[in-house]
């Protein structure tokens, strides 16, 4: 598995910080992020598919394919590409390896 973040944040790097939990650890997204943007700016996948175990990171990015579901702390799931990140949200991935950015 790659240790690279899939998304590189190039804009809005100084926007308001939006705190959230990822795999029980505190993380920071930025105002305007989707759940997908926030998570894939930190790592390479959203989850593993329950069928083959492959890493998944979305496909269509427009809310149509349902490939980007991510588990929440309460056991529900959200469509990461079309869900706005809000303070206090909590997600679990099974594949995430956090990487550091400059
Ligand atoms: S990536 Fe297709 S619905 Fe989110």
From TrEMBL:
**SUPFAM superfamilies assigned:** 2Fe-2S ferredoxin-like
* Coiled coil location: none
User: Which Gene3D superfamilies does the entry mention?
Assistant: 2Fe-2S iron-sulphur cluster binding domain, sarcosine oxidase, alpha subunit, N-terminal domain
Q: What is the lineage of its organism?
A: Bacteria, Pseudomonadati, Pseudomonadota, Alphaproteobacteria, Hyphomicrobiales
Tagged with keyword Oxidoreductase: yes
Q: What is this protein called?
A: (2Fe-2S)-binding protein
Q: From what organism does this protein derive?
A: Ensifer canadensis
Oxidoreductase as UniProt keyword: yes
Per UniProt, the keywords (alphabetical) are:
Oxidoreductase
InterPro entries in the record, alphabetically? 2Fe-2S-bd_N, 2Fe-2S_ferredoxin-like_sf
- Which superkingdom, per the lineage? Bacteria
Under Gene Ontology molecular function, one entry of this record is: iron-sulfur cluster binding
């Amino acid at each position: 598995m790659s240790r690279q973040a899939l998304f590189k944040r190039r804009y809005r790097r100084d926007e308001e910080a939006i705190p959230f939990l990822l795999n029980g650890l505190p993380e920071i997204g930025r105002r305007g992020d989707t759940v997908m943007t926030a998570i894939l700016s930190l790592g390479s996948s959203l989850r593993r598919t329950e069928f083959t175990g492959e890493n998944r990171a979305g496909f269509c990015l427009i809310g149509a394919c349902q490939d980007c579901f991510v588990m929440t702390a309460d056991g529900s799931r959200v469509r990461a590409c079309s869900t706005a990140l809000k303070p206090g949200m909590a997600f679990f991935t099974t594949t995430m390896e956090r990487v550091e950015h400059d």
